[in-house]
Design brief:
71% helix, Tetracycline Repressor, domain 2, 232 residues, mainly alpha, Arc Repressor Mutant, subunit A
Length: 232
Amino acid sequence: MSQSDKRENPAPHTQAAEASRRREPKALRREQLINATIDSLAKRGYAATTLADVADGAGLSRGIVNFHFTSKDNLLSETIRHLQDEYTANWMAMVSKAKSDTASQLLALVTADLDRKICTHRKLAAWFALITEAKSRPNYQKLAWERDDKYRTTLTTICRRAKQEAGYLYDSQSTGDAIYAMQEGLWLRMMLFGKDYKRETALKVVLDTLCTIFPRHFADDGTPLIVHAEDE
């Protein structure tokens, strides 16, 4: 076969791979593009990320990116929504699997932020890159606030329940806000310092904080304790 014939007739395995990729479900391609967006945001930041970078990272054509998302803003909005949905589904699953007592529910909720499915340098870097743009982009702010509101409402509710059980003197809303701020600070530290700030160190900070704020609900080592009615 001549060289020209080879160019005109691609190898069968190449044709098969291209045909297979064309048949990939729409949802799979969108997921590939969103994951490539997360990679680019973590590597390049918000301003330097382009649709071309995303297409190259996903191994897809630039036309495919435009077909699915039409613009960079739409793509990044969908990336925020993807991260938000993943985050919410993860903490809700961890809380649902935990024991029903207040301390176990609180521990599951707060430590979900450090779960390895969510708390990776790549995802943290992408999240902060997007959130820094929220002030000037109302749609980003709305998406981020929806994620925050559901989590913070749940956190405040559990703090209120702990207060009722043990007679703590704190304000439930302020205490929930303080715990939430601590978690964001730990995420920022892990993102900035990478391997120099280990997950185990962040977890110890969380457990020490819970033991300090809720001394009747947690043992010194962070083990959840049940506050019975007769203890009130």
